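If you are new to this repository, start here. Below is one unmodified record pulled from the training split, so you can see the exact layout before writing a loader.
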Amino acid sequence: MAGGKKAAKGGAPSGLAAIASWPARLSAYVEEVKREMRLVTWPNREQVQATTVVVIITVFIFGVYFGVVDYLLTLGQTRLYQYFSR
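And here is the target side for that same chain:
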């Protein structure tokens, strides 16, 4: 092939064709993103507040759980070291 490679059918362009076509590809990408964003159903304020409260409560519960587990493992490890260091 003289002059450069051609892209396979349905594939991305290669070489100079890829460089020359990036503005058109970028424009098509931006238009596709805009079109998809119009299809998004956004949550209302009450839904956002409710899910935020659930997340905060869940994080708090997991924090307490992991704190208790950490304390118990530390206590067990300390007692194990004390037992074997006699």
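Two things worth knowing about this chain: The mean pLDDT is 88. Residues 13-42 form one domain.
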